[in-house]
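Comment on both lines for my students:
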Amino acid sequence: MSADASPESTLPGTAAETSPDNPWPLQLLSRKLKAHIERAPAAWIEGQVIELNRRGGNAFLTLRDVDAEISLPASVWSTVLDRQPVPLERGSRVVALVKADFWVKTGRLNMSVKDIRPVGLGDLLARIERLRQALAAEGLFADSRKRKLPLLPHRIGLITGRDSDAKKDVLRNAALRWPAVEFDVREVAVQGNTAVAQIIAALTSLDADPHIDVIVLARGGGALEDLLPFSNEDLVRAVAAASTPVVSAIGHEADRPILDDVADLRASTPTDAAKRIVPDVSEELAVVRQAREHLRRSVGRMVDRETDRLHSLRSRPVLASPDSMVATRADDVARLQQRAHSAVSTALVRSLDQVHHLRAQVRALSPQKTLDRGYAVVQVVGADHAGHTVVSSPRQAPKGTELAIRVAEGRFRAVSSGHGEIAEP
């Protein structure tokens, strides 16, 4: 047996075990690739038909991702295409059931379309509505998340189509309302498979610029398919995550992409967006004039009121004749002094009378007054003349007792005769 016909049991079991000295035969790799690819299940994919060529009973088409520059060639039997109620054309949006096939002899990978269905308007609307409900349940549309636009933005970021009418409307109407307004314009694709990526890149760049106060996404009207990028989940989440207020100005009043719900402000048209993001300079000047007139009237009324108040204060007696208050207080002081003097004098006179009265009483009760009326005090003179004893009974002065007698005008001595009488009780 030759080396080319060596049994597989001598070959490496896995690709990682192969080496320059012990390689796999090409047919073995092809068979393993085919077996591996055939195990992959079929998958439904969505895309846009950009090429479609029929060749007898077979057809070849190219599908492109609706949001990215990724294409996929595939083959489909003509019988599958013939089952469609409406013939497929280039530009049709479809969903297809594809299965990968590997041709061993040629080493080619082919995507085979087992079934294909066009995506109708109703399908797109239903898909958008399901996404809208899911995002609403997350709270991305809540009013509490929406930021207020600045009263007068210094610089506005504008994301719009290249040389589009929407761009001209926003710039022209904003400049008419506020001539000093400044824009940072980012022109991007606003439909097609590259629109979402370009819009997100422009949004991220403007949101990172600290000089941008508000961002406007503007596009004119169009078919539902043309406005699909503005209902893309990635774009909607990027707008929700932006820190700069975002204004959605997509299509006309009847158009309602999901971007309108998540944006901080929804404008019905690009023209309406210009009116909503900057104030009208003529209206603001009129407001300033009204405010100045109101302020002038208010200040005038205040000055008049305070002037009248000053006149009223100046006309009061205390200010018209300031010395009257001092004179009044001087009269009060003099009157109070007089009252105090009178009160003190009266108290002194009354007290003096009391002193005289008490003096008279004391004098009337004094021993001297009694002596003045003819009375006398008789005392027995002591043997040693040390002290005298008042005589109150004849028994105290028997005959021969030396007595000391005090009268009103002096003293004299006497000797008792002993003939005194004792008064009866």
User: Anything to note?
Assistant: The longest strand covers residues 43-55. The first helix runs from residue 26 to 39. Confidence is low (pLDDT under 50) at residues 1-6.
